[in-house]
Design brief:
The complex is a heterotrimer of chains A (about 325), B (about 250) and C (about 290). Chain A is mainly α. Chain A has helices at about 1-25, 25-50, 60-75, 85-105, 110-130, 130-135, 160-185, 185-195, 195-200, 205-235, 245-255, 265-280, 285-300, 305-315; strands spanning about 140, 150, 155, 235. In chain A, a hairpin with a 4-residue loop joins strand 2 (about 150) and strand 3 (about 155). In chain A, helix 1 (about 1-25) packs antiparallel against helix 7 (about 160-185). In chain B, strand 1 and strand 2 form a beta hairpin. Chain B is α/β, with parallel strands linked by helices. Chain B folds into 2 domains: about 1-80 and about 200-245, 3-Layer(aba) Sandwich (Rossmann fold), CATH 3.40.50; about 80-165, Rossmann fold (3-Layer(aba) Sandwich). Chain C has about 290 residues and is mainly α. Helices cover about 75% and strands about 5% of the residues of chain C. In chain C, strands 1-2 form a two-stranded antiparallel ribbon. In chain C, strand 1 (about 130-135) and strand 2 (about 135-140) form a beta hairpin. In chain C, helix 1 packs across helix 6 (about 165-175), helix 2 crosses helix 8 (about 185-210) and helix 9 packs across helix 10. The radius of gyration of chain C is 19 Å and the shape is globular. Chain C starts with a helix and ends in a 10-residue tail after the last helix. Classes of the chains: A mainly alpha (about 325), B alpha/beta (about 250), C mainly alpha (about 290). The interface of A and B includes residues 181 and 329 of A.
Chain lengths: ~325, ~250, ~290
């Protein structure tokens, strides 16, 4: 299991690098980095569906947005709520929503799944738009981050760098857990189901239940990312729950490469940096992002991680260590 | 000997097309039962019904005395019923080892475990390797299934079927498309591996059927023509008519 | 309650539009097994092209009604031939991603060329009158939309069920591989169907323009309604699309009258209910 040590050491190195960033970067760069880290969790959770289970969802933003809104609403309506409880509220809401919607989608795969998830995402968006007394409608919701109370001490969250560390630790733990998940029995079963669901059934696997669990699990991770998103910007607008937010995660994951665990993380960096770069030179950055996306769908379906791996193989002449089972199918 | 499986008057029609019209037979415990019949007689449909892929239009399937008709495949598998496929149904991209491990860990209730890693469990790996040893694939265990020769893919198909340690094994034309030598090897392997198990086998190759089966049932136009020991089947006039008369 | 006939007719007109969009969508899905996310983008392009044509050749509604479907037929054909066919071998997810990406850049392109704001199109002179029907005064234009949908629906039904081409098409829906071996040029059939679907969608866009204002979000709006039509009616079923379009058109229309706050959510509730009761849709075959 050499692969695992490599993966864990990469994560530790990335984490340590991240911990030093506040010393080096300016505050607007720190803002962007916090955003990147939060979206990393969102993109990895999305890739567990798309890359590992082969389920193309157009509704991931409903969980992201739900987590964000519930957290914001909890903070605004429950006086003195602690940071942890606000996040737990958001998380619980997405787990319940993920389970209910998962039950409705249970039997569907492929195009049906894509279509239905898009429809449910629109439903969430419509409800958020219409229910403006709670969600703030077009104006969105402003919140103030509560302090983090750890029992023995309380850490002020008014300092953006303090929140950066909270996000870094939470997302770090979640990503380690996700990596571990891909190695567990459940994580392996998910890939096998994509490969040959019929055979799985005849070997005693309840594939519908597995799909439901995976859908709820990835939804909850996206919800957690949404909670952090709300806390980071101290503001939630309708765009957090719109289909555009799903589009964003889809492009991030795909550009980075859905064939590997690391691809989407790379994708988030590229997407957000590229977005900042393009939006400086043109108002039409989304159009060019779309062109890049189409180009990659046609010519580089494995994403940037495929490009990197091909280059690596060309120069070092051997297979890289970090290609997981998902990779083998491309 | 008690009945392991009792098929009672199974009918199946697909939007009007009657494929099975009253199939009846019993399979005793630890018995090997072969089903033969011309193409299109409904043999695979019967397997699909027994293994839970289709619901019968009417009739019952008693498994150890309990009606299992219409139960989903995964529950039947958990109760000890496992089937193979006529066209190899493997995880093509996975290694031979992982193919078999999939069934082994299902048997050991490691299907959806969120916290344990199957590859790190010694018992599972040992069990998997034992099965691979038995079917003669141990040297290929780290090759992807898609790279195997046709004969070895068929052997892997059987290995996967056996990997959940079933009590009742259904084999759908295990030797289809094999060469003479491969077939002989396969017969010996099936003979060895299915001792002390109940086996139902669909086969076209009469050598396989007569050398393996205790009882042979002839399925003809959706119903069982006759069910008897190999010696009697060999001399049965109706069977001769069905096979010789209509090809 | 004298409003009821008005709302009923409103519902019918919207159902007509929905049918025109979802018919192409369901046909392409049934035949090529591709869920075309860019389908509604064709509808939007139809509306914007017709706006531009009428801007340059003032008031030429009928010209744009004839021209736009042709333009979109060509665009649809090009997309199928040079993009979709390329990714077909890569599998299902890639096809979905491609059509989705196309929908995305078409929306962005529309924002770029025509601006990210609503534009109103005048109803063409001849049709800009009212008529007495069921004892109420009703705008002719909505009836015109309804007529268009009925005519297109009938023509499609005749082609599908009464001609040799229709037999090939219906066979291709069931089993495209077998049809391929029978000497039919299946890639050409696919090309034709895809292009025809795009043209139909563009046609719907042209006639939708004067009824609804046009804006860059119009594609996504009708796409989701069309998806719901397909879920409710059943995948690949033209008859199901008719019934479901009527259902949803009326539901939208009366929803506004009866539950103004909930009107948009009603459609989704219907969809969720269908998913629970009959997951394959009203007229869909079991998956």
């Amino acid at each position: 299991m050499k692969k695992n040590y490599v993966a864990y050491s990469v994560m530790v190195i990335l984490f340590l690098l991240g911990a030093f960033m506040p010393v080096i970067l300016k505050s607007y760069q720190m803002n962007m980095l916090t955003e990147i880290i939060i979206f990393t969790l969102y993109a990895v959770s999305y890739n567990l569906l798309l890359g590992y289970a082969g389920l193309l969802s157009f509704g991931h933003a409903m969980f992201f947005g739900l987590g964000a809104f519930v957290t914001a609403i909890a903070i605004n309506h429950i006086p003195g709520i602690s940071l942890i409880n606000a996040v737990l509220f958001g998380l619980a809401a997405t787990i319940v929503a993920g389970f209910i919607i998962g039950c409705l989608l249970l039997r569907h795969k492929g195009s049906y799944f894509a279509l239905l998830t898009l429809a449910f995402n629109s439903l969430f968006f419509v409800v958020a738009t219409k229910w403006s007394s709670v969600t703030g409608g077009d104006d969105g919701l402003s919140i103030t981050r509560p302090d983090l109370n750890l029992g023995f001490t309380s850490i002020s969250m008014t300092n953006a760098n303090h929140f950066y560390y909270v996000a870094l630790i939470v997302v770090g733990i979640a990503l380690v857990f996700c990596w571990y998940f891909t190695q567990t029995a459940m994580g392996k079963s998910v890939v096998l189901m994509r490969e040959n669901e019929e055979r799985m059934k005849f070997l005693g696997y309840n594939t519908n239940a597995s799909r439901l669990i995976l859908f709820t699990f990835t939804g909850a991770l996206a919800g957690l990312a949404g909670c952090l998103y709300a806390l980071h910007f101290q503001f939630v607008s309708l765009s957090a729950i719109s289909v555009d937010m799903t589009t964003a995660v889809l492009i991030m994951a795909f550009v980075g490469g859905t064939g590997t665990y690391w691809g989407p993380i790379l994708g988030v960096f590229v997407y957000i940096l590229l977005q900042n770069f393009l939006s400086d030179i043109t108002d039409r950055w989304a159009f060019f992002m779309g062109l890049i996306f189409i180009f990659m769908v046609i010519f580089i379906p494995g994403g940037l991680s495929q490009v990197i791996m091909n280059l690596y193989q060309r120069f070092f002449g051997k297979k890289t260590d970090d290609n997981t089972e998902v990779e083998e199918t491309t | 000997m008690s009945d392991h499986l009792h098929i009672q008057n199974i009918h199946k029609d697909f939007s009007g097309l009657k494929v099975l019209t009253g199939v009846d037979f019993k399979v005793a415990d630890k018995q090997r039962h072969a089903i033969i019949g011309p193409n299109g007689a409904g043999k695979t449909t019967l397997f699909n019904i027994i293994s839970g892929k289709f619901k019968p239009s009417s009739g019952a399937i008693l498994y150890k005395g309990e009606d299992i008709s219409g139960k989903p495949p995964h529950l039947l598998n958990r109760r000890g019923l496992s089937r193979s496929f006529q066209i190899s149904n493997l995880f093509q991209e996975l290694t031979v080892f992982e193919n078999v491990l999939t069934g082994v860990r299902s048997r050991h209730r490691m299907r959806c475990n969120f916290f344990k890693r199957p590859n790190s469990d010694c018992t599972l790996c040992a069990a998997t390797e034992a099965i691979l040893e038995n079917v003669g694939l141990i040297n290929e265990k780290d090759k992807p299934a898609s790279s195997l020769s046709y004969g070895k893919q068929r052997a892997l198909e059987i290995a996967i079927t056996l990997s959940t340690e079933p009590e009742l094994i259904l084999l759908d034309e295990p030797t289809a498309g094999m060469t003479r030598e491969e077939t002989e090897l396969a017969i010996r392997m099936i003979d060895r591996l299915t001792k002390n198990h109940t086996l139902i086998i669909i086969e076209h190759d009469m050598d396989v059927v007569f050398s393996l089966a205790h009882i042979i049932s002839v399925l003809h136009y959706g119903t069982i023509l006759v069910s008897d020991t190999p010696d009697k089947i060999r001399n049965d006039q109706r069977v001769k008519d069905a096979y010789l008369g209509e090809g | 309650m004298s409003d009821i006939p008005v709302f009923f007719l409103h519902g019918l007109a919207y159902a007509g539009l929905l049918f025109l969009v979802s018919a192409g969508l369901t046909l392409v899905f049934g035949m090529m097994n591709v869920l075309n996310f860019a389908h509604a983008a064709m509808y939007m392009l139809g509306a914007y092209f017709s706006y531009s044509i009428m801007l340059h050749a003032t008031g030429q509604f009928w010209l744009s009604l004839m021209l736009c479907p042709v333009i979109l037929f060509v665009i649809g054909g090009l997309i199928e031939r040079f993009l979709l066919r390329r990714v077909h071998a890569l599998g299902h997810v890639q096809e979905l991603l491609l059509t989705f990406g196309l929908a995305y850049i078409i929306t962005e392109a529309v924002k770029w060329f025509w601006g990210n704001y609503p534009i109103a199109i005048n109803i063409p002179g001849v049709l800009n009158t009212t008529i007495q029907i069921f004892g109420i005064t009703y705008p002719v234009y909505r009836l015109f939309i309804l007529c268009c949908a009925v005519i297109v629906g009938l023509v499609m039904a005749i082609i599908l069920f009464k001609t040799r081409l229709g037999i090939i098409l219906r066979a291709a829906v069931n089993d495209s591989e077998t049809v391929n071996t029978l000497g039919v040029n299946v890639p050409l059939v696919f090309l034709g169907v895809f292009a025809f679907g795009a043209a139909l969608s563009g046609f719907a866009g042209v006639i939708a323009g004067p009824l609804l204002t046009i804006y860059p979000g119009m594609a996504q709006e009708i796409l989701i309604d069309a998806f719901v039509v397909i879920v409710v009616g059943g995948f690949g079923s033209l008859g199901g699309a008719v019934i479901a379009a009527l259902f949803i058109g009326e539901l939208q229309s009366f929803g506004v009258l009866l539950f103004p706050k909930l009107s948009m959510a009603l459609v989704y509730m219907l969809m969720a209910a269908i998913l629970v009761i009959k997951p394959s849709g009203l007229f869909g075959e079991k998956q």
